Amino acid sequence: MSSRPRPLVVIATSVAVGLLAAACSANQRGELQPAPPTSALAPTSAPTTTEAPTPTITLGFGGDVALVDGLETEDPFGAIAELTTAVDLMTVNVESTITEPDVGRAPVDKDFLFRAPPGAVQVLTDAGVDVAGLANNHVWDFGKAGTIRTVELLDAGGLAHVGAGADPTEAYEPLFIDVKGVTVGFASFSRVPCNWSFGGDTSRPQVSWACDPFAERVDALVARVVAESDVAVVLVHWGEEYEPCPEQDRRALAARWADLGVDLIVGSHPHVLQGMEKIGDTWVLYSLGNLVLPTARGEDRTTSAMVTYVVDPQLRQLLVTPLRLDERGRPRPAVGEEIPSVHGRIAERSRGATVATSGVVEPSPTESLCDG
Questions:
Q1: What are the structural domains, with CATH classification, of the chain?
Q2: How far apart are CA 65 and CA 79, in angstroms?
Q3: Which of 15, 62, 187, 191 fits a disulfide with 173 by CB distance 3.0 to 4.6 angstroms?
Q4: What backbone phi and psi angles, to 5 degrees, belong to 213?
């Protein structure tokens, strides 16, 4: 079980009201703490001109997680728990609903319907996961009821989330978390598939969408996250499954958000590792592949990585930790020749970047598999 203190949700959005209520009861456990009342922030003596130095913080990111097919009982994060609990803030894409078995019904017929049991929330928090990205094509696998119950269970378990809610107002709420005095802001969107985002019987208004009809709303939300945080992160579910390279429309969207001042864009959905690219001052991680997924099969789909974004007053950099998934879709640290193999896979798919033997992502003029 993780003993790391839970980070502080500093701004209560309409989505997070239940989370903060749960956090109040969690204070005895030393977990999430509600923000103090305004009066408590007033200085008790004349302020000094000396400011405390800005700390270095570490933000960890993993790929797609679906605690289904009994994985929640198999200690799925056990082999990498030292990694996921070592960072100050850990974020993953939760690629499923989390509900009791009788909640909701499938709105469409598709090959994979993911429902994790309520105990999955505790598995995630024990593994050190602090933020669940919910804007994806599986959070609505069991309709509106399944989405709402997922949010309720995350709130009750004290796990912060972003990208879905009971209605569009909640779904499009940002998330702000205090990490050692540094405000980290999140927005989460899906583009998979955009024809589910509006109109007709398949619309999913409980999910935030980065599709063309919502561009103005999306950009306003992204701009708010940039304005109100020290580190602005966009989580986005996009692209084509199992493809090694991002499509041009993804690069264009990333460039648009980079122009708005986003620090980091973290993609999901392709289920394979893709490359990285720096657009201006913005790092784009197009896909981190699978982190915990029982349907992962084959070399490309079981090759994974955890990426740590180091935020220092003088320097911001990315650090790659190679992972491999076993036959049940559980991650473990890569070993031996697996390590340079994972580094190389990311490097060959990256534009203007490579991965050093230390795991640090560095600029590189080397041609990319994804050029053109």
A1: 8-27+54-363 (3.60.21.10)
A2: 15
A3: 15
A4: -65, -15
